[in-house]
Amino acid sequence: MNLTGSQILAEVLLEQGVDTIFGYPGGAVLNIYDTLYDYKDRIRHVLTAHEQGASHAADGYARATGKTGVVLATSGPGATNLVTGIATAYMDSIPMVAITGNVSTNLLGKDSFQEIYITGITMPVTKHNFLVRDVTELADILRKAFQIANSGRKGPVLVDIPKDITAAKCEFTSREPLPLDRVPYEKNEAALQKAAQLINSAQQPVIYYGGGVSSSEASEELCRLMHKAGIPATHTMMAAGIVRYDDPLNIGMLGMHGSKSANKSVGNADLVIAVGARFSDRVALNPKRFAPKSNIIQIDIDASEINKNVLVDCSIGGDVKAVLSDLLPLVEEASHEEWIKKIGKWRDTDYKPKDSEKVIKPHQLFDTLCSMTPENTVFVTDVGQHQMWAAQYLHHSHPRSFITSGGLGTMGFGYGASIGARFGLCEGKRVVHITGDGSFHMNLNEAATAVSYNLPIITIIMNNSVLGMVYQWQTAFYEKRYSSTVPGRKTDFAKLAEAFGAKGFRAATPAEFKDALGKALKENGPVWIDCTIAREERVLPMIPAGGTIEDTIMD
Amino acid sequence: MSTPRKTIISILVDNHPGVLTRVTSLLGRRGYNIDSLTVSITNIPDLSRITVVMTGDEYMLDQMIAQTSKLIEVKDIFTLDADKSLMRELLLVKVAADDSNRGVITEIANVYKAKVIDLSVGSMVLELTGEQNKIDGFLTILGEYEILEVCRTGVTALSRGAVDYHLNL
Q1: Assigned domain for A181 exists
Q2: What pLDDT is attached to residue A81?
Q3: A38-86 pLDDT, tens per residue?
């Protein structure tokens, strides 16, 4: 077939099994959008209000489904507006292909209208990027982009296509998608034996697992390891839901806002098994004093993560699922009763917030939310206090059901990601977007998108009228000098929702929240619930940056 | 952590536009200290060789190699053992010289087997190829005179003996 570059793009998307993309049109991608008009029965294009929203939507789609998210934007500002979304996906290893238009090849490098060097700009936040200089290269570059995004440690790839390439023609033959590159795992018998020996001889072992378990779809193998060897497991924020919240061996989240018992377990362990986790500074706050009494085993697909932040005693490089499958037969059955009893005692002394019937307390809000929504609900957050409360108090029960910006911490991520998740999920699944008044103000323009497509997304705004997380730090470490964290906004979210064509409710008491949520769950389109939260509410416990368990703030 | 030492790293990369930017951008972003960097084509048309001299401890070196090898266009990366490798650098140096000292500078050049490649009324340009410490030594001695300009290529290096592509080409 002799096809235009735009048609080749559409055909390769079909080859890759892509049926939904997110984007925003513009001058440099006019030819592509004209072609998408012909393909609209096979490729659904979701128009967002802003390219950043589209990039978060592609990301949310990928997180919810495990498939590669695709975002399309025009040159110049369209492309630069994607950057935060691409960086968000990069930091959390989310497979994404971003396609940008650019000015025609004869105008490249001449500061032409809406020209930007987007491959240069995105170099540090993509796994790789391409500038297509000839239409005959286009199909293979796009195929390679999908292959790279999904191979090894996943991540975003950008393909920049000048306008003349989208119109130029060449021969095109459809192909099967490329197999994933660089076999990620060569069975390392010696490392497996060493790991098994460390596990089998440990008295006080702890598993510390992260988002890599989700990328590798290895929650089953992880649970088998935990239960066969009787090892309690703590998780990073990225890994919420991989093991059910009520699994007796799940000891919850660790790190800066993790439970004291989880942090104490790691601090007292004689073996820590890190699975698909990278010892980030929110977990290993003080890398030199992380698990000081412990041997450490690290299982990770990315060799550069081994010994990067914390020096380990034994490492196994490879896909988590494959490594765990090979490790399981070598591990002896054990129960570690004494150790688990000890952790149980620590858990009894964990931070417990006080209930209220008068005002909405974060933990009660999440209790209500979990009791009133189906267990398969997908929760999406923005960034800040509400995010930490959601991580702490939601009843995480499934992988891919807690969608949050971990590494980059992108305020304004949530609404776009909710929209993407909604498009990726089957009709039966609920999407609940949890946000704060600060984060929501950043990208609430995507309400327009939610209304256009009549998406049943419930947005819960935990509204304390301050930029809560920074406010909390200013309270604790800056002598209550509230510099630029009390914006004094008068936004009426319920009215604003109505103005967008969505439904809006207000709740100032637990009873009102229950009532509003009940009504929201009956709606078929977007709903916002503006929940009043006291500005004094803090995320606890908290270990200050660089601190250790001894520095934990409990009240 | 081990003590910092100088290491030569050979990186074979796809001969694509922008590949040097990708490598240097990564080195800069991760904060690795580069002493010198050279890049050139190889006998294989699709490959270029980037030779990096870096000072750092073992941790930094391991990280640098692990991070760099993740770049899609990096085909191979390995360190060159100083004992089993040949390392050369080219120096061009312009020294102020007139009738009074031209002779003695030429004598120094002869000791180092440097060549005089340009001579004018007030200056001369010397060329020297050798290992880094030889060039350092030469420049130290010339420092007794007035050095006007210096240009060094940075180290290029190959391993001794059989071909050392670790690639499955």
Answers
A1: no
A2: 98
A3: 999 999 999 999 999 999 999 999 999 999 999 999 999 999 999 999 9
Contacts 24+ apart (CB under 8 A), A427-430: A428/A376, A429/A376, A429/A377, A429/A378, A430/A373, A430/A374, A430/A376, A430/A377, A430/A378, A430/A456, A430/A458, A430/A521
What is the ipTM for the molecules in this complex?
A: 0.90
Residues in chain B closer than 8 A to A308 (CB atoms): 63, 66
With 50 as the cut, is the pLDDT of residue B168 above it?
Answer: no
Q: Do A124 and B25 touch (CB under 8 A)?
A: yes
> Domain total for chain A?
3
Q: Is the pLDDT reported for residue A406 higher than 50?
A: yes
Give the domain B86-156 fold.
Alpha-Beta Plaits (3.30.70)
Q: Which structural domain range is residue A142 located in? A: 2-171
DSSP assignment letter at A105: G
pLDDT at A180: 80
Residue A524's pLDDT is what? 94
Query: Cα–Cα distances in Å, from A282 out to A429, A504, A533?
Result: 31, 35, 25
Per-residue pLDDT at B84: 86
A249 SS3 class: coil
Q: Across the interface, which of A124, A128, A148 has its CB nearest the CB of B29?
A: A124
Nearest to A304 among B59, B70, B72 (CB): B70
Residues A303 and A399 in one domain: no
What is the least distance, in Å, from the CA of A152 to any CA of chain B?
10
Distance CA A498, CA A502 (A): 5
The class of domain B5-80 in CATH terms is: alpha beta
Tell me whether the omega of the peptide bond preceding residue A541 falls within 30 degrees of 0, making it cis: yes
Could you tell me which chain A residue has the CA closest to the CA of B58?
A: A307
Name the band, by pLDDT with cuts 50, 70 and 90, for residue A179: confident
What is the distance between the alpha carbons of residues B140 and A238, in angstroms, rounded to a whole number? 56
Nearest CA-CA partner of A155 in A170, A163, A165, A145: A145
Instruction: Please report where in the chains the tokens 């990280």 appear, as a residue.
Output: B63
Contact indicator for A440, A72 with CB cutoff of 8 Å: no
Compare all CA atoms of chain A with the CA of B64 and give the residue at the minimum distance: A304
The closest CB to that of B66, out of A119, A131, A304, belongs to A304
Share of chain A above pLDDT 70, in %: 99
